[in-house]
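From the pipeline queue, job 12 of 40. The input is one protein chain; the requested action is below.

Action: predict structure.
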Amino acid sequence: MKKSTSITFVSQTLVGLLCIIAVAFLFAAFIINLYYKAETNQFIVNCLIGVGTNVFGIIITVIFVQRHLDKTSDKKAQILEKEKIIRFNTIFERYNREYEVFVKALFIPVNERAERLNDPLPEKLTVHDFKDIYSETRLVNYGSDSAIEKYYFAEEKLRNYVIRILEEINFEYHPELKNILVELLKVSMDYHSKSKVLELAANEEQLNRISFIIKNESNDWEADFDKGIYNNDVSTFVLLLKQIKEERKLIDNYQKYISKIME
C-alpha cells in the first residue's frame, strides 16, 4: 500500500539510531557491573540501565506513532484515489452512453432504430444482425454517417479515455479495476477489423454481395470461425462481433465495480 516514504524513512532512521544508543548504554552498564563492584560504580550502572530502558520506551513510542501516521496517510490516499476514480467515471459514462447508442445502431434494423434505441439488446447477438450497419444512423443529431462509422468513432473515443484513466490513476487500492480497464484496452486494440469493415463498403457491388452473405442465416459464421473455418470477408464481421461482446462484458464488470466502491 502507498505510504509517506519520507516520514517512514526518517522514522526508521530514528529507531535505528535509538536502538544503537540503548544497546550502547546497556552494554556499558553490563561491562561496568562486571568489572567494577564499587557502590559509586553501581550508581552509574543504574543510571545507564535507566537511560537504556527509557530509550527503548522511546523506540516503542516512535513505532506506535509511525504506525498511526502510516494508517492515517494510507486512509487519506485511499480516499483520494476513490474520489479520483469516481470523478473520471463521470466522463467515462458519458463516452459509454454514446458507445452503447452506436452498438445498438449496428444491431437494430435501420427502420426501427429510433423506436427501439432505448430497448435493451437481445442476449444473443449474431453476425446476421449486422445487415444494416452500412446504412445511415437515422438518429437525430448524429448526421448522415453510417452506423458502423459512428460506432468506430465512439469506440475510439472510449478507448482513448480509458488510456487517459490508466495514465492518471495508479490504482494502488483498486488493482482489480485497473485489470478490467487494461483488458478493455487490450480487446479494443487487438481486434483489427476497422479498416477491413470500412473497406468492404468501398463500392456498391461489393457492398451488395457482403449484405447478401450476412443476411444468409443458413450459416453460423461465429461457430465456423471458432472451429477455424474462415471466410475472408465474413470473418471480419465475426471479429467485430467478438470485439463488441467482449467490450460490453468488460464495461459491465467495470460498472459493477464502480457501484461497489460507491456504496
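Job complete. Residues 196 and 232 are 10 Å apart (CA to CA).
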